[in-house]
Amino acid sequence: MSVAGDSGGRAQQMRQRAQELKDAAERANDPQERQRLMDKARRTEERSEQESGTDTRGMDPM
Question: Relative to the CA of 11, which of 1, 35, 40, 44 has its CA 20 to 30 Å away?
């Protein structure tokens, strides 16, 4: 297995986790909990971008 493949898989898992956090934030009734979850999702997305070495904000998701 290559290192690039490992980091790509990890980045994908982190993006999936970030989406789960966003979904949980949407369901949260408490505004503070919602904000906490959204902040955690944002940090997780930033880490996934660092892991993958790309900035997905500028890419077309197809």
Answer: 35
